[in-house]
Amino acid sequence: MTTMTIDRDHDPGADAASARVAALENVASVPLETAGSRVLVGTASWTDPTMTAAGVFYPKGADSAEERLAYYASSFPVVEVDATYYALPAERTAQLWAERTPPDFTFDIKAHALMTGQGTETRRLPKAIREALPPEMQEKTRIYAKDFPAELNDEVWRMFRSALAPLEERGQLGSILLQYPKWVFPSNENRSIIEDAAARLKSWRVAVEFRNGSWLNEKNRDRTLAFLSERAIPFVMVDEPQGFKSSVPPEVAVTSPDLAIVRFHGRNAATWEAKNITPAERFRYLYSRDELSEWVPRIREAAGQAKEIHLMFNNCYANYGTTNAREIADLFAEELATAS
Question: How many angstroms separate the CA atoms of 186 and 201, rounded?
Fold first, then answer.
């Protein structure tokens, strides 16, 4: 595995990150209210091994999956589940998530890779789907939905929806994140793919994140945002490394009156498109308070346009995401106190 490092100001280690919030009241533990909007702050992981290591985020004794989720839910009102991108969820798992969290806790769920045109490891597919594949596809290490028989593709979507029913029934299902890869560029065909995904997930809130910057370039920006606005699909705003074809600029664009989402990926350009590294290494970046402050007026702007805003920290190395989540909530609360 390739490990890449960044400057120590943005990668100071878990102890230094913890020290930054030691004296802060955790205002991120409940939604922040402003301008008729609820602002929920959380992270895109609660189980990464670098996060569950002793003394990093969880208190001593919080060693089981149940204890960790309960502690996380006491610290933040929302979490993003990214494991569903790699493997279709199981209904029993979703039931346990619901049972282990307060009824007002929110789960944002990342769509499975096959649902956004990306490849998945064949061995991680449910047995019933794997065994129903043509023999030549069963032998492949990695497969794509475009190669699936239509009925099996439909089954992927059905199983995804069915598994998350416990969260939907308890009102804990936030949104389904449709993250499209960098080879999905602006075109009528790809807009139709997004429409199809939204239709398959009808009655659920979906949100779209692009990994191809041309969706928001001068030529396509207005059409992209109009397309999403007409369908009330949230455009996922991002903070991420710039200068790549996969880079989307960090601008405010609210395309749904119900929900706005910002995902913070860190600004580690060295690892952004690196191969063969873990997500924790890819997004290993601790924002400075000054960098987070850049988003406070942007959040205020979005708050006037959407009923609910989710600020999700995907810099999931150790306690970097939880530290920054608490810090941005503190900065936003300070802004609200000053403005009142």
Answer: 22
User: Which residues neighbour 94 within 8 Å (Cβ) at sequence distance 6 or greater?
Assistant: 163, 164, 165, 166, 167
Cα angle 200, 40, 241; round to 5 = 80
Q: What is the pLDDT of residues 197-252, one digit of tens each?
A: 999 999 999 999 999 999 999 999 999 999 999 999 999 999 999 999 999 999 99
- Give dist(CA 232, CA 223) in Å, integer: 14
Could you tell me what percentage of the chain is helix, strand and coil, using 3-state DSSP and rounding each to the nearest 5? Answer: 40, 15, 45
**Cα 280 from Cα 295, distance rounded (Å):** 23
Query: How many domains are there within the chain?
Result: 1
Q: Is residue 9 part of a domain?
A: no
Output b/e per residue, 210-234; b: 16+ Cβ within 10 A: bbbbbbbeeebbeebbebbbebebb
Structure tokens at 61: 């004794």
Give the integer Cα–Cα distance in Å for 263 and 241. 12
How does DSSP classify residue 235? B
Structural domain includes residue 221: yes
Contact 70, 61 (CB under 8 A): no
pLDDT at 2: 44
Whether 190 and 146 have beta carbons less than 8 Å apart is answered as: no
* pLDDT tens string 38-97: 999 999 999 999 999 999 999 999 999 999 999 999 999 999 999 999 999 999 999 999
Contact 283, 315 (CB under 8 A): yes
Find residue 142's DSSP bridge partners. 121
What is the pLDDT at residue 340? 66
Dist CA 87 CA 89 (whole Å): 6
Is residue 4 included in any domain, yes or no? no
Task: Kindly tell me the burial class for residue 196, based on how many C-beta atoms sit within 10 Å of its own C-beta (0-12, 13-18, 19 or more).
Answer: exposed
Please report whether residue 250 resides in a domain. Answer: yes
Chain centre to alpha carbon of residue 204:
16
